Amino acid sequence: MRVCVITPYDLSHEGGVNRHVRSLARALGALGHEARVLGPASGPVPEGCDGLRGVVPVPANGSVARIGLLVPPRRVRDYLDAHAFDVVHVHEPIVPGPGRHTLRLATCPVVATFHANAEHELPLLRLVRFFASAGLGRVDRAIAVSRQAKRFSRTIYRGHTAVIPNGVDLARFHPAAREPGADHPARPVEVLFVGRFGEPRKGLAVLVEAVRLLRASGRAAAVRVVGAGPAERFAEASQQLGVRFEGRLDDAALAHLLARADVLCAPSTGGESFGMVLVEAMAAGCPVVASDIPGYAEAARGAAVLSRAGDPAALAETLWRVGGDAALRRRLSERGRARAETLGWAHVAARVLRIYAQAGALAAPPAAPPALRRAARS
Fold first, then answer.
1. Alpha-carbon span 331 to 334, nearest angstrom
2. What is the mean pLDDT of each run of 10 residues along the chain (378 residues)?
3. How far apart are CA 377 and CA 213, in angstroms?
4. Which CATH number describes the domain made up of 2-167+344-377?
């Protein structure tokens, strides 16, 4: 089967949805299908992806989304015609760009995946989403990556929607190299933060304040921060509290840090529909402490210790309790790996293929030549 997986976000930049679509395409390929990723691009794109020029940065969900607002519809039409896909899988189908054009231009079955948890959206973007929902009648089947995402999707799409969580690469994140720290009351808790820390909702400021509280009470935590963001904003924390900024790392380097950390801390204050950083840490056997927001609770399914969101004092006590209890960390590591096993990409891709079948993709007749399909649309 020939599958086109479409992202609305700049393929030249890393992001959760882009990581998802590339991983899904690889997993579909491993199952014997031909999958390509299409999306807007401001520069070079990863292998297996095809980019279209027309990226525009816009504020969204407490961040900045680089979307294909200026991608011409004819470029999408020509791409679809040239490849004659059996199914197109549009991610975030109400975001302007190639996916929106595909809803109008595709002649094969269409599947859509909703990722967003829009609790922090600006009113203007809510209005844009409302009008954009008009084209969703073309979607044959839909997927939401979490119950939070499905709750939002139901406000704009009434068709059949299955919840299929994000997947994790179990080969890249594996506990084989796990080096659990010893249980010693005087040893600093080794904490790892992963995320775009320039976004306030990711909660790095909450973690820094928790570390400050621990230091003030005679306890210590050593924090490493992985990800993109303005490290200069946290210069004082870096100097006084020993917070180390590692920048963006590839999966191998990240897996190495996860193998050494006592705890992966995910202190986001909201706006997370699922939380892949938790699942990758659990796959690597790293114990997880996370804020008690719905998306994280759903991702963890009891395999992490949750702390009250936005509360540095509660986070400080939770980090110290987990970091100082080797037996608890071992239990969390075992539970986390078991949870991650259920989310391996082979399992997730198999579930997605069933949605394709329900949409009619597997039973689709051979595609007509591009010229005939253009004539049928005219």
1. 5
2. 97 92 97 97 96 91 83 98 97 94 97 80 56 84 93 89 94 74 69 92 95 94 93 86 92 90 95 88 96 94 96 98 94 96 96 97 52 42
3. 65
4. 3.40.50.2000
**pLDDT on residue 363:** 47
| Structure confidence at residue 135 (pLDDT) | 85
* Other beta carbons within 10 Å of 239: 9
Q: By the 8 A CB rule, do 330 and 196 touch?
A: no
pTM summary value: 0.84
| pLDDT for the residue 239 | 85
Domain boundaries, the chain: 2-167+344-377, 175-341
Name the class of domain 175-341: alpha beta
- Using DSSP's 3-state secondary structure scheme, residue 218 falls into coil
> What pLDDT sits at residue 119?
57
Task: Give the E-state strand segments of 26-127 in sequence order.
Answer: 34-40, 49-52, 56-60, 63-67, 87-91, 110-114
Whole-angstrom distance, CA of residue 289 vs CA of residue 304:
6
Using alpha carbons, list the distances in angstroms from residue 17 to 14, 22, 288.
9, 9, 22
**In whole angstroms, what is the distance from residue 90 CA to residue 8 CA?**
8
Supply the pLDDT for residue 180.
55
DSSP 133: G
Please report the pLDDT score of residue 365 as a whole number.
42
Residue closest to 2 by CA, chosen among 43, 49, 35, 26: 35
Torsion angle of C-alpha atoms 289, 146, 340, 283, degrees rounded to 10:
-50
Helix/strand/coil for 223: strand
Residue 57: Cβ within 10 Å count? 13
Give, in order, the Cα–Cα distances in Å from 82 to each of 104, 356, 369. Answer: 17, 21, 9
Sheet holding 34-40, edge to edge: 49-52, 34-40, 2-6, 87-91, 110-114, 141-144, 161-163
